[in-house]
Amino acid sequence: MSFIFNTPQKTYDIGNAKIGGQPGENPTFLIASIFWLGQKMVSDANKGVFDKKIAEDLINTIQTQSDITGVKFALDIVGTTETAFEQYIDFVPSHTDAPLMLDAMSPRTRIAAANLAKKMGLTDRCIYNSIYKGVTDAELVNLKESGIAMSIVLADDPKDTSLEGKMNVLVEALALAEKGGITKPLVDTAVPAFEPDMGTSVRAIPIMKEKYGHPVGLGSGNLVTTMGWVKSSFEKEFRKGTVCSTNTIMQMAGANWLMTGPIEQAQWVFPAVAITDAYLASIGADLGTRPTDENHPIYKAFM
After folding, report:
1. Secondary structure percentages of the chain, helix, strand, coil, to 5
2. Of 213, 189, 219, 214, the residue nearest 202 (C-alpha)
3. String of DSSP letters for 184-195
4. Which of 61, 95, 224, 235 places its Cα 20 to 30 Å from the Cα of 5?
5. SS3 of 29, please?
6. What is the pTM of this model?
7. Cα-based distances in Å from 280 to 27, 202, 235
8. What is the spatial distance between Cα 260 and Cα 188, in angstroms, rounded to a whole number?
């Protein structure tokens, strides 16, 4: 990886976080999932019924990790129905000031979530997940009307997973994002699973940053959940190392943001990411780059 990019690197604000920039300028922005499908605290995913005490404890834990390390985060609210989102979006903002990602497989549910966020005055804190090749005009119109400015923009062409395929589809995806009123795109290199060709998505990180200057990242949690070899070969308590290394690898490739998977992993992911950010800031200092935030992990570590 090059530790400085020739193309001016854009930095986007959301809440109290800055996402993007040259390596070492800003901490890696983490997005952790809550109310994910199968999470034990959720007793009815369709109705949005969950254990509020457990949810509050998880949010407090990730906030504490953020305060200790200086690594900023968003909560990826995963909802299967509009009813569920009503419950989740009502609860989460009352327990944290962190940005919120609106995440649903169904376009209809995503549209409903965006409308709820607008109704509740939360759009300036929201990240849409996601815009991709094939998104409908109706969804883009609704997204633009919602006022949400930040979205994941997916560089994914299922018919061509090569680097060239990703670069080609990203042109279309960014145009769709602009059509949907997105002024703060977070480019996603679309890593699908832990498999032999996964490296293409990692290699795409610095290439896309150099070409466009937008913040680039990926869903590192997707890799961890599909590590069949790891799950069959190692005891559960030792798999945390693979979770940490999967994220730090992406940071060293130039990632500005990462979807790290379940919120329950915060206590080991945040320290690993913070240490890597400190190294990146030290490297950046040799090249004339300085952290933009006085709470950057390098200052937490050495002051």
Report:
1. 50, 20, 35
2. 189
3. EEEEE----SSS
4. 224
5. strand
6. 0.97
7. 9, 17, 31
8. 13
Q: How would you write the pLDDT of the chain (303 residues) with one tens digit per residue?
A: 679 999 999 999 999 999 999 999 999 999 999 999 999 999 999 999 999 999 999 999 999 999 999 999 999 999 999 999 999 999 999 999 999 999 999 999 999 999 999 999 999 999 999 999 999 999 999 999 999 999 999 999 999 999 999 999 999 999 999 999 999 999 999 998 888 889 999 999 999 999 999 999 999 987 877 888 888 888 877 888 998 999 999 999 999 999 999 999 999 999 999 999 999 999 999 999 999 989 999 999 987
Question: Which tokens sit at 258?
Answer: 């990462």
CA pair distance 239, 224, nearest whole angstrom: 9
- Give the Cα separation of 116 and 82 in Å (integer): 9
Q: How far is CA 56 from CA 34, 51, 79, 94, 175, in A?
A: 11, 9, 17, 10, 38
The topology under which CATH files domain 11-302 is: TIM Barrel (3.20.20)
Hey, what long-range contacts does 287-292 have (CB within 8 A, 24 or more apart)?
287/3, 287/4, 287/24, 288/4, 289/4, 289/22, 289/23, 289/24, 289/25, 290/24, 290/25, 291/24, 291/25, 291/26, 292/11, 292/18, 292/21, 292/25, 292/26
**Helix (H, G, I), strand (E, B), or coil: what is residue 131?**
strand
> Domain spans of the chain?
11-302
Q: Distance (Å, rounded) from C-alpha 256 to C-alpha 10? A: 11
**Among residues 296, 256, 271, 292, which one has the least CA distance to residue 23?**
256
* Helix, strand, or coil (residue 295): coil
**Dist. CA 278–CA 254, nearest whole Å:** 14
Integer Cα distance of 264 and 58 in angstroms = 7
Residue from 177, 129, 124, 154 nearest 13 by CA: 124
